[in-house]
Amino acid sequence: MFKRLIAIFILTLTLVSASPAFAADQTIALRAGFNFISFTVAPTATPASLKQLNPGIDDIYYFNASAGSFVSLSEGALTTFAAGKGYIFKAASQFSVMAAGNELGAVGNINLKTGFNLVGFSKMPETKTGNALMTSYEAIRGIYKWIPASGSFIQIIRNSSGAIEQVDGVDPQMKAGEAYFMNFTSEIQLNYDSDKVLFGTNIIPAAQKAAVPVMTPSAGLYTAAQTVQITCATTGASIYYTTDGSTPSATVGTLYSGAITVSSTKTIKAVAIKSGYTDSDAVNAYYMISTNAGEVLSSVDITAAQTAAKRFMEIYGKGSMGDALTATEITELKALAATDFMLNGINRDTLIQYTSEAPSSPEAEQLVSFQITSQPLYYMSSMNFLAGMAGTMTVRNRTTGALTTRAFDTISQGCAITSDYKNYYSRSLEFEDGPPNLIVRKEADGKWRVAGNGVKAEEIYMTAQYQKDIGASSNNTGYARLWFSVNESSSFPIQSVSVSGGYVTGTLQLEKAQGGTEWRYKQGNTYDVATNPDWSLYPVKAGQQFTFTVNYTDGSQQTFVLNVSTIPAGIRPLDGTVTVSGNTVTLTWEKCPFADFKNYEFWNSISGNSQEFSDINTVSTTLDISGASPGSQIYINVYAKLNGAIQTGYFVSIIKQ
Fold first, then answer.
1. To the nearest whole number, what is the mean pLDDT of the chain?
2. pTM score
3. Is the CB of residue 78 less than 8 Å from the CB of residue 60?
4. Which residues contact 514 (CB under 8 A, 6 or more apart)?
5. Going from the N-terminus, what domains does the chain have, and what CATH number goes with each?
6. Which DSSP helix (H) or strand (E) runs through 349?
7. C-alpha distance from residue 550 to each of 196, 403, 475, 487, 560 (Å)
8. Where are the beta strands (DSSP E) in 375-447?
């Protein structure tokens, strides 16, 4: 029956992607029916051994393009696996299997035949869609990707006039671990061993590139000397580094042989080099060590600099949270802000206007007090210093009147800033989550003023999100998502945003939301929660460094380096329940079991607003849905937010009866 279906132009095949592997073994998520996969490891398992370990596998097939027919395990014709090929697993139910293997090396040129081929992508070294591949290579007549949720193919074909048509209006992204039926006009070869996906004949790919070095601890602000270690994932690679701003190479810089002590502000640049590989991209890490201000400034200047920063934050915090400033405070703020003030896209004039007018919808909390316990100064240039701050802030809930005191530390939360305001280094996935570090300057009139932070964008951040659907028809679906996001300010429109580093291969281009100001990209993997998936397979790992390059329409450029400081051990989505009684929805969730708890966040599509709970013991809430129309769908999200831009929780959708 299966071969007969294939003969009818493969219009009822079933394809499910395999989760990307990040170790020697590969986890393959199967659904009931046919699943199309490729190995991202060099498999040591055989079809027979894999089926023996996993009785839920009914059969395994391989498509012989030369013969135009299939061979199968059950017929005894399929005895081995190999990387670079596509396979079809028929499963009796939904479950996951672990395929044993070794780290994948070079796959080599893959020979493809005229007509239909089942093409396995064991690697995907660049971001490519089906349309992009067909645009680059005219020999590709069609690409067919199965979508399990709809039970149909996404089809991209070249019509009789040669134009590319997205038959289903969708352009699928090609991914490692997946297999696709592809139709070719002639015999051709495929190679993805370099940093490109190449089709042609007698392909000689570029040499593999050495992995980018990783520095530990990550770049950022520190109050004491740091011992920096540099590692590289490419076995046998040599690391060269510089501290004078020059780009290292085999002939420039120092061969790394042990930890580097950084006792004053400096930039370390490093590159990995290995014979037979192209050199890695150079990586920069800027370590800003707090200044012994007494060696540079008088005690009077130290006090004046710290007072200016503290008083600015008191007034700015009050105004930015929604309380109108008094005339005296407005005058004081004008005197404190330098003429070239810039803070996350807000210049001096906008700052005064922004904080002088009471907003129509103020923040849910208002600032009551701002206590500073530590104010280290970081030397930048001349009489410019970055003022770090640590202490507590007390806020009042505008609805309940409840007071909450929170600790903040801009040293660990904030960013190191180079003196030209072009490069920013954060020790987390967020750029300054909380009160910002402020640049303070002694100007010609002898007064200390605040220059902001020089950032032209409104917000730069990433969010690592672990989530599951707890609805009745969820099919035990879980999601691990990473959001890249940059919000542009009205004063400085953005031309383009790209992201590199971390697990990103090459450069990822963010797209601007239509009609909005957010540039974003969402990457995610889907998991079967019922089989207790290993969420550590999610590609975001502690120690990764992502670089955002933001190009503005005025021709300027700023880069923001964000680091994954930590991923909690055993990370997974939170469990919870949702019950509906009349017009009341009751939600419960488990107490957050992970370290660095920040708050819970509850969002619903009725109001479109979020509600936060800072008490870790708050594990339930209710939602009034009386305002929703009968038959309408209501979406609900519940998250525990952790420091470092990690979120874990659940979502559910319900129908108003």
1. 85
2. 0.67
3. yes
4. none
5. 2-200 (no CATH), 214-289 (2.60.40), 294-416+436-452 (3.10.450.50), 459-563 (2.60.40), 576-655 (2.60.40.10)
6. helix 348-356
7. 24, 39, 40, 11, 8
8. 377-381, 384-387, 390-397, 403-409, 415-417, 423-426, 438-442
**Using CA atoms, how far apart are residues 363 and 139, in angstroms rounded to an integer?**
57
Q: Where are the alpha helices (DSSP H) in 363-476?
A: 410-413
Per residue, what are the HEC states of 21-83?
A: CCCCCEEEEECCEEEEEECCCEECCCHHHHHHHCCCEEEEEEEECCCCEEEECCCCCCCCCCC
Per-residue confidence (pLDDT) for residue 190, from 0 to 100:
95
Angle between helix 299-320 and helix 348-356 axes, rounded to 10 deg: 50
Query: Which residue do the tokens 């081929």 mark?
Result: 117
Dihedral sign for Cα atoms in the order 483, 488, 489, 492 = positive
Q: Are 316 and 333 in contact (CB under 8 A)?
A: yes
92 token code pair: 């009796």
Residue 192 to residues 130, 189, 207, 249, Cα–Cα distance (Å): 15, 10, 11, 27
The strand pairing partners of 584, in sequence order, are 581, 624
- For helices 348-356 and 327-336, angle between their N-to-C axes, nearest 10 degrees: 160
Q: Say how far apart CA 293 and CA 448 lie, in whole Å.
A: 15
pLDDT tens digit string along 556-574? 999 999 888 788 888 888 8
What six digits make up the tokens of 319? 């105004």
Cα(636)–Cα(580) distance, integer angstroms: 13
CB-CB contact of 585 with 625 (8 Å): yes
pLDDT in tens, 425-466: 888 777 655 667 899 999 999 999 999 999 999 999 888 888
> What confidence tens digit (pLDDT) does each residue in 627-646 have?
888 888 898 999 998 877 88
- Distance, in Å, from the CA atom of 258 to the CA atom of 250, rounded to the nearest integer, reads 17
- Beta strand 57-64 with 33-38 is unpaired
CA–CA distance from 71 to each of 44, 56, 65, 178 (Å)?
A: 20, 20, 11, 19
Q: What is the 3-state secondary structure (H, E, C) of 126-183?
A: CCCEHHHHHHHCCCEEEEEEEECCCCEEEEEEECCCCCEEECCCCCCECCCCEEEEEE
Contacts of 608 (CB under 8 A, 6+ apart): none
Handedness of CA 514, 518, 519, 520 (dihedral sign): negative
Q: CA 501 to CA 218: how far, in whole Å?
A: 13
